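PROTOCOL LOG
Step 1. Enter all chains and additional molecules of the complex.
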Amino acid sequence: MYDNGLIFCAVTAAALDLCILILIIASYREKSSSRKRWKSFSSDMELFENGRSYYLGCDEVLIGRHGSADIRLHDMSVSRYHAIMTITDGVWTITDIGSKSGIYVNGRPVKQKKLHENDIITLGSRRLVFRKRRDKKK
Amino acid sequence: MSNPFSYIFSCLFVLIAHAGMLVNVFFNGKEVDTKEFVILCAAVLGLDIIYYFVMLFYKQHTYTVDFMLLLVLNMSVIFQSCFGGVHLSMKHYITCIVSLIASRVGYHLVRDHRWIQSKKKYVWVCIGIMMGVIVLFTGSRSMWIDLGFMTIQPSEFIKPLLVIACATSITEQQNKHKFLQFNIVWENIILFGITAAVCLLQWWCRDLGSIPTFAAIYAAGFLLRICYPKAKFSNKTLIGAGAAVLIAAGIGIYLAPDYVRARLFVNIWDDTTGNGYQQSQALIAIAEGGWLGKGPSNGFLHEVFAYESDIVFATICEEWGLVIALMTVVVILLIAASPLINPPLSYFHGTLCAGVCAAFTVQMALNIFGSCNLIPFTGVTIPFISMGGSSMATSGIMAGMLTAAQNPVFAKMKSAKPKKQKKVTGGQPA
Amino acid sequence: MKSIRRTQSVITLFLLVFIGGMALLVYKINKEAPFYMMHSDNHQLGKVYDRNGDVLFDAAGTGYDENHFLDVGNLIGDDKGQMENTLVAQNIDKLNNYSFSEGLVKEGGKAAIYTTLDHAANRAVYNAYMGAKGCTVAYNYKTGELLVCTSLPSIDVTKGYANIGELESGTLISKAMYGTVPGSTQKVSTVISALEIMGPDRLFSKTYNCSGQYMNRSGKPIDCHQSYGHGDQNIQQAVENSCNPFFAQLVEDPDLPLGRLKDMYRKLGYAVNDDKPQYIDIDGIQCEKASTTLTDSYDFNTQWGCIGQGDTLVSPMQLMMWQSAIANGTGKMTMPHLIDHVTDVYGNTTETAKTKESAQLFTPDTAETVKRILLTNGSNHYTGSISGYVLGIKSGTAQVKEGAEENALLVGFVSDERNPIAFCVVLENKYSTPVYAEQIVKTLLDSLCS
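Step 2. Run joint prediction.
Step 3. Record the structure below.
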C-alpha cells in the first residue's frame, strides 16, 4: 500500500506542478498581450528629450524632480512634483500639480491641457516632445 | 490571449491536476465507496468543464486568475470531501460555486476605477451597515449571525470593502493635490477612523484573528499612500514610525490583560488536553503525515474540532502530505502574486492588489502559523481552503478584484469598441 | 512605472514575509516532528541494550525470560510515565523510530540506546542480595562507564503497574541516585578535608585517645562502637577502626577550623546547611549529591555530621565517584555515564559518550595519601572476605529509622589497571539479612573482573 501511495502521491504532485507551471506560462503570455493592449489604448506615446525617451506605462504618470516621480528630471528648475499626465479615452492630459515654474505647451502656459502628437512641453528649463513611441529594439 | 478558446490548455491541465488528485483518492482512500467517488468526480470535473464554458461568455483580457481560482477551489472541494471518508461535501461545494460567482461580482465592482471612485461614499456606507449588523445581531462575544439554515460572519464582508476603501482614497488623494496647497486629506482621517472602528468592533466581538487582517489591509494602503506624491515622509520617518509601532505592540502585550497573555504565551505541550489540544493534535497529525501523507481519508484529525477550518492545513498535511499542502499554499500565493507577473496599469488597481495580497497572506499566516504553534492560535480561515461560506464568498470577491486589476476599463464603452478590435488583431501573433 | 512598481514591492514584501515564515515552519516541522510524534498514540520505540547486546528495554516486552528486566527495572524504566527519573523516561525521544521523511517505521527501525551496563553482572549482584534491600553501583573509574547499578526492591516493567498501591516504598526509584545516611563512609570525606587543611604531616602527627565514649566540649557523649575503646590512635588506625571519638576530637581540634571544613565540604559537593541542593546529571537522570549540617566545632550534631550520622545524606553514586578521585590519584572525579552511544532510525550513530572529569576537588597528594590509607585498610581487613583483589575500601554502618535499623555500606575501588572499578554497596537492615555486604562486593567484582 505504501509503495502505491508513493506513486500516486508523486502523480498528484506532478500533475499539480504541471498545472501551476502552465498557469504561470499563461500568465506571462497575458503580460505581453496586456502590453500590446495598453499600447493600442494609450496610442503608444512617449516623452522625448535630447535622445532620451520616457515611456508612459500607466494611466497616471508623475513628472518631477523627486525620487518617487515616474519621470524624474534632474533639474532645479523643475519642481519636485511638477505635473501629472493622465489618460482618458485614449487621450493624454497634462495637469499642473502646483509647480513653481508652471507648464508651457507649445509655448503657451497651461494649467491643464489635452495633448496632441508632437506637442512640445516645457517644464522649467526642460523641453519634452510628446510623440509616437519609436522602439529601436523592435 | 483575449480569446477564451486559447485557454483550452489551461483548462485541460486544471482538469488533469484534479483528475490526478481523484486517482490518488481512489487508490489511497480508505474504503472508497464507488458511488460516492463517482459523485465527487462528476462534481469536480463537471464544475471544471462548466466553468470553462461559462467563461467563454465573458470577454476578458486575462483569465489566468480565474483558472487558478478554479484550480484551488476544486482542490479544496476534494480535500474537504475526503476528510474522514470519501463523500462529496455538499456544503463546501456550494460555497465554492458561491465563491466563483462572488469573483464575478468583485470583478465587475472594481473594473472601472473611475466609477468605483465616484461611488466610494457607498462603500463607506456599506462598511457602516456591516458594522451596524455586527453590533445589532452578533452580540459582544460572538462573530456569527445564525439564520437557522446557515451562519454568516459579517466581519468577513468588511474585508473586501476595506480594501476598496483604501484603494479609492489613494486616487482621491491625488485629486486633492490639485486644489489644496497643504496636505491635509480628510479621506485619510476618515479611512483611519473606519479602520480603527472596525478593529475596536472586532475586539468587542473577541474576533481577535480578524484584527491583524484589517490592520494589514490598512497598512498596505497606508504604505502606498505615504509614498504618494507630496506626502512628506522620508525613509527615516518611516523607520521611526515602524519602530514606534513595534514598541507600542510590545507595551501592549506587556500591559495586556491576563486572558490575552494566557493566549499569547501558551505552552501547548503542557496542556495537550486543554487549551493546547487543537494545536498539539494538529502538529502530531503533521508529524504522522510526513512529506507524503497517509492517503486521503486515512487521517485521524477529522475528529478534532475545527478540522475543516481553523486547523485545515494540518488536516491536509496529514492526509495528503506536506508537499501537497505546500503546493496548495503556492497556488494561493500565485493568485496573490498575479499582479507581479502581469502588472496593473493604474495606481488604484495596484493598491487594490496590494490590499488583497495583504489580506490573503495575513489570513494564511495567522491560520497556518497559528495552528502550528509559531504564533498565537486564532480562529482565522485560509482563503479558499477552509470551510465557511462568508470566508469563501469574500475570498472570491477579492480574487475577482485581482482579475479586474488586469482587465481595467480605461475608456467608455463607445470609444473602447474600435480599440478592442485592434487589440485582437495585435494579440494573434503573440 | 515607479508608482506601479511601488505597489508591486508592497505585494512582494507581504509575499516574502509569508514565504519566510513558511520556510521557518517547514524547517521547524522537520526538526521537531519526532518530538510531536512522541505525543502521538502511534509512536514506535526502539530498544535499550546493555554493553553486550542484551536487551534492557523493549516497549513490546514479550518473548523474554521471567523477570528478565527486573534487576534494571527502576533504573532503565519505561514509557508509561510512572517513573520519571529513569533512562527511558528522560531519553525517550532518542528511541523514537520516526523521521519526517520516512514516516513511522513500524518494523525494523533502528533507533536504540546502547548503554554501558553489564546486564549479567547486574543480575548476579541483584541475586546476591537474596531478597534483601539496598543498592549497588559500580563503574569504571577511568572511563566513567556505569557497569552495575541495581536497586532493591525493583519492578518488572513488563508486568505493569496494576498493583502500584501494594509496592514497597523505594521500588520505583533507583536508590543509588538518592541520598542515604553514609555512616562511617563519610569519614573518607573528613579525612580528605583534614588532609587538605592541615597537610599530611600534621594530620599523621595527631593522636587522640578513645575510651569507648568521648564527652565532647559541649558536654554530650560521642559513643564508639567498641565499648572498651581503641586507646591512643593515629589517623591510619582511626580509619581502620572507624573510631568515632577520634573523629569527634579531630573536628574539635583548632587546627581544623570549621569555616575551612565547610569550604572543603562544599568543594566536595555537599550542600552545607541551607545551601541549595545540587544534582549530578547522568544522561538525563538526576542524581542527588550530598548534604550536611555544620554549625559549630563543638556541636554534637556537627561532629556526628562529620562522622556520618546527624543530618548528613550522601547518594551512593556520589560516594562511588569520590572513590574515583582517590583511585585515579588526580583528585578529579570521573563523571559516570550510562549511555555509550545512540543510533537513529536508520542505524546511524547520533551521539557517542565521552569521558568527562569533574573540577579539581583536592590535590593529587591528598588523593595518594587517602588511597594509601584505604589500600592499607583493605589489605589489613578485607583480604579474607573479598579475596583476590587489591582493594582500597571503607566500611560504614548507618543508623536509620531513629536507630531501629542499621544499614551496611562499603565503598571502595580496585587498584588494578585492567579492572579499574569503583563501587558503593548499600545493604539495608543488615542484621536481618542472610547476606553480608562483603559477599555482595565479592559477587560484584567476580562478575565484572575477568
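Step 4. Note key features.
Confidence is low (pLDDT under 50) at residues 176-180, 412-430 of chain B.
The beta strands of chain B are 145-146, 151-152.
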